[in-house]
Amino acid sequence: MELLIVMVIIAILAAVAIPRFITHIRRAKEVVLQQDLWAMRRAIDYYTTDKEKAPGSLQELVSAGYLREIPKDPVCPECPWTEVPATLEGNDPNSSGGIGDVKSSAEGTDSNGKAFSEY
Q1: What share of the chain is helix, strand, coil (3-state, %, to 5)?
Q2: Residue 117 located in a structural domain
Q3: What is the spatial distance between Cα 114 and Cα 16, in angstroms, rounded to a whole number?
Q4: Mean pLDDT on 1-10
Q5: pLDDT tens digits for range 21-31
Q6: Whole-angstrom Cα distance, residue 17 to residue 103?
Q7: Which band of pLDDT confidence, cut at 50, 70 and 90, is reported for residue 92?
Q8: Is residue 113 part of a domain?
Q9: pLDDT digit string (tens) for 63-79?
Q10: Within a domain: residue 114?
Q11: pTM score, whole prediction
């Protein structure tokens, strides 16, 4: 009988702890996504400032040393990053497209209801 009571108590504790654990894991992935996007955007800005042109791809940031590696999307590891083209400045013939921003291509929304693609 005592063993049954202990098992019921453990089951109740697990029923409370597991949903909270899953919520914290999801929130941690959202925070990592925001930090990765911030780091890639910062690298794009530094590259653009230093080279006076936008990078052609994320891989160019790695080969130039602005990023060690292209991070995986923590929400959807198999999804590629969405590269947003840079805006061309005026009529400068030397300004080539390149990337101006990067976004997540993961479907769904975060815990606040904001779409991952809007990050």
Answers
A1: 50, 10, 40
A2: no
A3: 26
A4: 92
A5: 999 999 999 99
A6: 33
A7: low
A8: no
A9: 999 999 999 999 999 99
A10: no
A11: 0.79
